[in-house]
Please model this.
Amino acid sequence: MMNIILIGARGAGKSKVSRSLSKQSEIPVVSTDSVAVYETGGIPIPKFVENNGWKAFRELEYSILQKLQNANGIILDCGGGILFDLDESGNEVLSERKLDLLRKIGRIVYLERGIEELVEKVKGDKTRPDLSKITTYRSILEKRLPVYQEAAHFKLNLTKLSKEEAAEKILDWIGIKSKSI
Model:
């Protein structure tokens, strides 16, 4: 069975859509962020990043994807930065190695929302670590959104869709019958 990989910005709705997809398809969800917390012995991601930095977190994501490359029949709910690594200067760059693994693992679905909508959704959310002390989330999004688009096999704008409708569209695209009808 094919794996479904959900990518998109922080706040796009990947976790909600993945749960709805799972409910409709009976395919289990694996969250890269949940696995990361598990792998660090329960340390929340903001704390891990604070203690170890983003570069270490991006390495952790890569090791998680390596472990999942032979997975079969999962919905992979990816953290917003899954497609990125940091260069020597600490700038975000496309992670070819992670993208290659994601493409090996399954079909990539980009869950898209507008920048304004995303900025509003994550404002003041303390469960999410700061992406940068200097750069605004808006400018990070401006760089990331085209990368998500390029990486995806399928793009779905969630602005006017419920999580259930989004899940149905993804299942239709993949050719899996919804079990909840």
Notes: Residues 4-172 form a domain with the Rossmann fold fold (CATH 3.40.50.300). Helices lie at 14-25, 32-39, 45-52, 54-68, 96-105, 115-122, 137-151, 163-174. The chain has eight helices and seven strands.
